[in-house]
Amino acid sequence: MSGQGACKQGDWVEVERVLLDPSERAAGLPEDTARQPLKMWVKGFARTSARVGETVEVETMTGRIVEGALTDVLPGYTHTFGRPPAELVAVGRDLRARVAAYRAKEGR
Amino acid sequence: MGGSSADVLARRGEIMKAALGFDYAVFERSPIAFDYEGLMASHGLTIDDVRAIQRAAGVGGTPIIELRNLTDLVRSYAEPGFGARIFVKDEAANLAGSFKDRRASVSIHVAKERGYEGVIAATSGNYGAAVASQAARAGLKCIIVQEAFDSRHVGQPEIIEKSRLCEAFGAEVVQLTVGPELFVVMLELLEETGYFAASLYSPFGIAGIETLGFEIAEQMRELTGAPPTHVVITHAGGGNTTGTARGLRKAGAHETKVVSASVDLTGLHMASDTDFNRKSFTTGHTGFGVPFATWPDRADVPRNAARALRYMDRYVTVSQGEVFYATEALAKLEGLERGPSGNTALAAAIALARELPRDATVVVQETEYTGAGKHHWSQLAFARENGIEVRIGDPADNVPGTSIVIPERPEQIAVREIDLDRLRRSYVRNALEHAPEGYEPTPEDVAFLAEDSHTTPAAVERVIEELRAQA
Ligand SMILES: Cc1ncc(COP(=O)(O)O)c(C=O)c1O
Questions:
Q1: DSSP H/E element including B214
Q2: Three-state secondary structure call for residue B202
Q3: Across-strand partners of B392?
Q4: A1, A32, A39, A79: which to substitute to probe chain B, counting the most B Cβ within 10 Å?
Q5: Which of B29, B124, B336, B422 has its CA 20 to 30 A from that of A103?
């Protein structure tokens, strides 16, 4: 929900929609899931201008029209590789040394 | 949705019939048995046809690479004379980065041929990207329905990366919070659009994987003079095991042992909002592997073409930490940065190779692409953010959803055996429970259950009697 605060018609945006209220959810769900609504996010081209939180229709990549609350304009991705886990950094060094020692012992 | 869920579910049969272009009812033989081979042959495509379709689609023909450094690593601690040769089939070389391209290619071919305007698949995994990629090439529209977020709108980085890749290939991605109602959303979309259901579990999808087993037999004959003694397969819904094993048989590799491997996620609930982000693997784990092996017909199609129990010679588990360790070893020793989910079979192969003589050949049957989000570093960072302890130690101390234990030494990598007879028993129980009350299994049903669970009719009868005695 970062992005800009409003969209114009034709902008690539994301909308959010509640598909099922907790009371409408399937039977037999674990309790932690059952007390949450089922929500959906879809991206598409805005059919009108809107501010974040306002209802807007989008036309998706397949040409479907979906209505929802505007959550983001030009929604992007920020997932990364992150930092190396300390538990793994020495694995390569140590395993290479073991292979080298094995080959030396075998006379290769 | 909402009040209409029940109505949509009631129309499930006709929606799927229209969306798949054929009727499963013609293959039903009784409340228990169906004509599996009839279903599998119904598309009329030979393995050569499928190979031609895949060649045109830019899919398959991936290299097999011998992992000489990893093999020597295993030999450095195996008993003298032990330490099988380890090979890997680099399925990441497919267009969308995994063996799932094979599965998608046949569905997309059929959808195009039959005049559908688009395709829909429900998947949070590599299959979504595969369908999106193949649909883009075929000029078909594509909707991927993903279980992507928990109720805080936090997504597994691996799944978010998959959303990104599907969008990169021009698919409409419908992202949902956790819950099995995803199936209803998919049915509604199929009804609304009239698109083809590119199910993971249709005979088309499984036919697409048969080429993978076939190529392994062919390539290993070329490399070593014989099909592999063992093929290790990362197992979840069972298509990977089923298709690969069928392909090996079609190539005449009847002696090859089929070993399925899953990451152990025992104790985590697959429909739980809070457990959702406590899993550091989104596929290849026991949360799918065991339920699908013991009751395949839980899928989105009336009969699942993926029936892993028919084909497994062994089913083993490894822990999350062992797979992350194997992933790091593959990159540093072999110059192959892949996975991690697809490296489940690699971790198992490292353990199996140690038990096997040096002239045995173990093929790790796939790799998958890696990248931001999917990468094992991202997975471990995300696990930590979600309160999971990550430490170095004895992988036997791993507790799914609580701790990830990275091995101190490769010798600690071990497989845990799942008792196939226990799985067969629960499969038979499930089959009986799904038949109408009071239904008496016929000799034909018993024969079907035996074939479907890779055992003898006498063994099935014994299980039925035991279940009766308990009831
Ligand atoms: C990379 C990878 N390996 C293995 C599997 C497991 O395949 P299946 O679900 O057919 O058992 C999947 C799919 O979930 C996958 O994406």
A1: helix B203-224
A2: coil
A3: B406
A4: A79
A5: B336
Residue in the block written with tokens 């790091």: B328
> Cβ–Cβ of A80/B118 closer than 8 Å?
no
Global pTM value: 0.96
Q: How many domains does chain A have?
A: 1
ipTM above 0.85, yes or no: yes
Full residue range of the structural domain in which residue A13 is found: 6-78
The CATH architecture annotation of domain B52-97+204-417 reads: 3-Layer(aba) Sandwich (3.40)
* End-to-end alpha carbon distance in chain B: 39
Decide: A39 and A16 in contact? Cβ < 8 Å.
Answer: yes
Q: B272 CB contacts (<8 Å, ≥6 apart)?
A: A30, A32, A33, B178
A69 - beta bridge partners?
A16, A55
User: pLDDT for B197-211, tens place per residue?
Assistant: 999 999 999 999 999
- Phi and psi at B28, nearest 5°, equal -70, 135
On whether the CB atoms of residues B288 and B372 are closer than 8 A, the answer is no
Whether B2 and A19 lie within 8 Å, measured CB to CB = yes
For residue A59, give both structure tokens: 């036309």
Q: Does the bond joining B441 to the residue before it have cis omega, within 30 degrees of 0?
A: no
Residue A74: CATH number of its domain: 2.30.30.760
**What is the Cα–Cα distance from A100 to B73, expressed in whole angstroms?**
9
Q: Which CATH architecture fits B5-50+98-201?
A: 3-Layer(aba) Sandwich (3.40)
Q: Tell me B372's DSSP state.
A: T
Q: Collect all residues with Cβ–Cβ distance below 8 Å to B367 and sequence separation of at least 6.
A: B88, B89, B90, B91, B92, B98, B336, B338, B339, B342, B343
Neighbouring-strand partners of residue A55: A69
A83 neighbourhood in chain B, CB within 8 Å: 377, 381
The single-letter code of the amino acid at A73 is V
Tens of pLDDT, residue by residue over B373-422, are 999 999 999 999 999 999 999 999 999 999 999 999 999 999 999 999 99
Helix, strand, coil percentages, rounded to 5, for chain A: 20, 35, 45
Asked if the domains at B5-50+98-201 and B52-97+204-417 fall in one CATH topology, the answer is: yes
Number of Cβ within 10 Å of residue B407's Cβ equals: 25
- Note which residues in 25-84 of chain A have CB less than 8 A from chain B: 25-26, 29-30, 32-33, 36-44, 60-64, 77, 79-84
Angle between helices B203-224 and B100-113 (to 10 degrees): 130
